[in-house]
Amino acid sequence: MFRLTKVVARLSAAVALAASAFAAQAADPIKVGWLSSLSGPLSSAALAENEGVKFAVDEINKAGGINGRPIELLTRDTAGDPTKAVNFAQQLAFSEKVHFIIGPVNSGEGLAAAPIIARAGIPNLVIGAVDELIDPAKYPRAFRVINTNRQWISTANDYALNTLKKRKVAVIGDTSGYGTSSAKTATELLKAAGIEPVYSVLIDPNKTDLTDEMNKARAAGADVVMPWSAATGLLGRLLNARGDMGWKVPVVGHPALMASQIRKLLNKPDYWEEAYAAGYQSTTFRPDGKLPEPTQALVDKIRPKLGNGELDILFWWVAMGYDTVKLIEHAVKTAGGTDPAKIQAALENTRNFRGVYATYTWGPKERNGFPDSNMAVNAANTFKDGSFKLAPR
C-alpha cells in the first residue's frame, strides 16, 4: 500500500509538472517582428499599415491571445534604408528569435532582407510587390500578402491604353530599388502591348523640382504620364509641376498617387484632377456609396483609435496590416503552435481565407495569395475616409 501511494504521488507530481510546463509554454508570447519604414520618404504606406497591425494585435490580445499565447510585437523602423532593414532582420531573427516577420514594407528593403529571413527559417509575410521577393525554392516560408507589382502595373496600363485610349506614354520612376524595378517592368509591359514610351526617366525621390522632367515629357509628345514610385513627396511635386505648367495630361500609376499626404502637398486642390491609380475593390465605394461589409466593419471599429474624424490615411494599407496579423492567428491555430515547418504547411494549404483587404489562397508552389479580381482603378480626388470611387469608364 505504501509503495502504491508513493507511485501515485510520483505520477501526480509528474502530471502536475507537465501541466505546469504546458501552461508556461502556452503563455509564452508569440513574437512577431515588424519591419516597417515609419520615417523617411517612403513612409506613407508604412504608417497606415502600422495602424492595422497594432489594432489587430491589440484585438487578439484582448481576446486572450492565440491559443492562450499573447502576441508580442517587435517593431523596427527601417526608415526606407535597405542597410537598416538587413541589420534589423538579423537582430529579429537571431537575437530576438521571433516566430514571424512581417515586411519589410518596401521592395528595395525586402530584396536585401529576404535572404536573411529565409536563412533563419522564419515564416515571412511579404508586403513588397516586386516579383523577385517570392520564390518557393529560395524562400519557402515567404508568403506574399500584397498584390504583385505586375498586377498594379497591368491594371494601370489597361486603364491608360484601353479606357483613356492613350498611346504616347511617359514612364517616370525613382532611383530606389522599387522605382528602378517598376519603371523597367512598366516599360516591358508597355512594349509587349505594342507601345514604346516616348519618354522615360528615373528621379531621386528627394528632388525638389520636377519641372525639367515634366517639360521634357511634354516636349516628347506624351499624352499620359505614368509614375512608378511609392514616394509621396515626389508624386506631389510631379502633380504640382504638371499643374503649374498648365498641362492637362492625365497621370496614371502607383497607388501612392492617391495618398492623403499628396492632398496636403498640392499647390491647388484641382491639381489632383485626372490623377488615377491602381487600387482595390475592397476599398472602393460601391454605386450605393457604401464600402464592402468587411471593410466598413473595420472602419467602424478602428475609427475611435484614429481620432473619430475622417480617416486621413489610405485605408487599404490599414486593412492589409490588419490582415497580416489575422493570417498569423490563422496559421498558428491551424498548425497548433509556432513550429516553422508546420506554419509553412498551414499557409501552403490556405484556401480562400477571407480578410478585409483581400481573400487569400496559397499553395505548395504558389506564394502569391492576392487575387486579380480585387484590383481596381480609382480616381484620386474622390478620397473619403481613406477609400475611393472607381475611375471614370
Describe the structure.
The chain has two domains: 29-148 and 312-372, Rossmann fold (3-Layer(aba) Sandwich); 150-287 and 377-382, Rossmann fold, CATH 3.40.50.2300. The protein starts with a helix and ends in a 14-residue tail after the last strand. The protein is globular. The strands form four sheets. A five-stranded parallel sheet has the order 2-1-3-4-5, with helices on both faces. A three-stranded parallel sheet has the order 7-6-8, sandwiched between helices. Strands 9-10-13 form a three-stranded mixed sheet, with helices on one face. Strand 11 (353-354) and strand 12 form a beta hairpin. The longest helix is centred in the N-terminal third of the chain and has 26 residues, at 2-27. With 393 residues, it is α/β, with parallel strands linked by helices. The chain has helices at 2-27, 44-62, 82-95, 107-120, 149-163, 177-192, 211-219, 232-245, 260-265, 293-302, 315-335, 340-348, and strands at residues 30-36, 71-77, 100-102, 124-126, 142-144, 169-174, 199-203, 224-228, 251-253, 275-280, 353-354, 359-360, 375-379.
